[in-house]
Amino acid sequence: MDKLYAPWRDQYVMSHTKNDYSGACVFCTLFNKQESDEERYILYKDAMVAVILNLYPYNAGHLLVVPQNHVENLYELSDELLSRMIKISAVSTQIVKQALACQAINFGANFGRIAGAGIPEHVHLHIVPRYSGDTGFFTVIGDAKPISIDLNSVYKKMKPYFKEISL
Ligand SMILES: [Zn+2]
Fold it and tell me: Residue 136 to residues 3, 13, 20, 50: CA-CA distances in angstroms?
């Protein structure tokens, strides 16, 4: 699991956070934007939880499961919201297997900046599809590697599956 975290991304995410959102929470800003789900790369959302494509992914199909509540810690969420997040995470892992034919999945979270969280102020869970031979992304610590991913095509592949789900 330690190879999942890529510290160089933190700087990247935060530079964009500052430029684009004037220090406001990236997720809350995204949820409040008057744009289509597709423009915001939101694959699923209900009153409690959203599943979005990570704009700075470790891999194609890197998803974030984000509660609508702006809280920093998992333990601040209600039991109902926690179980909702795990349920939608479980469904999402099934979808990345089906939609992207990945061979394995990393699932987890970073709490706090020194743990690698890019947006530590708003708790979220990561789902990272893994493919045979993709380990090159994770082996060089402290050095940015270009990851060429067409977010729009990944979104289009996954969205139909998320339309089907009912929780
Ligand atoms: Zn927030």
Answer: 10, 21, 30, 30
